[in-house]
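Run log, item B.
One chain of 36 residues. Sequence copied directly from the ordering sheet:
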Amino acid sequence: NEKVNIKTTTNEKMGFIGRREGAASYCVVSLEDYTD
C-alpha cells in the first residue's frame, strides 16, 4: 500500500525564486521499519 501526498504553494516576491531567477524543489519522506 503506497500513499502519496502532494502540496503546492507559490513563492511570489520571495527572493530569487519569486523574481523568476531560479527554482526550488522540496521532498519530505516518512519511513517505517517493518522488520520483526
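Observations after the first pass:
- Helices lie at 15-18.
- Residues 15-18 form the longest helix (4 residues).
Flagged for discussion on Thursday.
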